[in-house]
Amino acid sequence: MALLNYSPPTNPYLDVVYHDDDIVVLNKPSGLLSVPGKHEDHKDCLETRVRKVWPTATIVHRLDMATSGILIMALNKAAHRHISRQFQDRLTEKQYIARVFGEFEQPTGEVNLPLICDWPNRPKQMVDFERGKPSLTKYKVLEQTSVMQEHSGKQHTVSRVALTPVTGRSHQLRVHMLSLDHPILGDKLYAHSEALALASRLQLHAHWLKLTHPVTEKSIEFRIVCPF
Question: What gap in Å lies between CA 4 and CA 42, rounded to an integer?
Fold first, then answer.
């Protein structure tokens, strides 16, 4: 599916959080693809930019184009194998910050709903109890505020939440929040018109990642302040 008006941010062109001989950790901006798209106009992406500096860099995990935050890449095959195994075996820990529509009844909870690609409407995902893959998200409400919608003048409750994905399915956090009737603000794929109008970008940010260094075997963690 072609991305309409793909004009990824270029300032900064590359935001490097940390690097050594084995890994490079980056702050991906909202609006930039993690990997190249099929269309020629979609070749500019985080992976392409990183390889101009570190030609051996390979992607280990991805963030949606509209999502910002921490992304780690491997700089050699051994590091790639090691980190990929950590993600596959759920040995990494990560947390996202999101602003969502509405007020939660419970301050903490979890969403355990199987997900599968909504093929006729791809890249959208959907809940499917027969064919979906197990998917689990934990959430914690951090703050709830009242926000006025500019054009209509309506007041809406907006909740700031910490989201911890136990599994790593495509669009998992976005669909799980939608399933609770709390779509993420600015989500062009899943939000209803009111939630979409309350933010100019998807209000989802990967702000914390913890894993084991592929060489030192020491636990390392990275945080990036949420931009919204």
Answer: 10
* 3 state SS for 216-228: CCCEEEEECCCCC
Residues 6+ apart with CB under 8 A from 5: none
pTM, to two decimals:
0.95
Nearest to 24 by CA among 78, 79, 68: 79
Q: Distance of alpha carbon 52 from its chain centroid, rounded?
A: 24
**Running along the chain, 228 residues long, what does each successive block of 10 average in pLDDT?**
78 97 98 92 95 98 97 98 97 98 97 97 96 98 91 90 97 98 98 96 98 98 97
> Which one of 20, 64, 118, 128 is the catalytic residue?
64
Residue with tokens 């030192």: 216
Q: Is 64 a catalytic residue?
A: yes
Beta carbons within 10 angstroms of residue 110's beta carbon: 12
Question: Strands 93-101, 204-212: parallel, antiparallel or unpaired by DSSP?
Answer: antiparallel
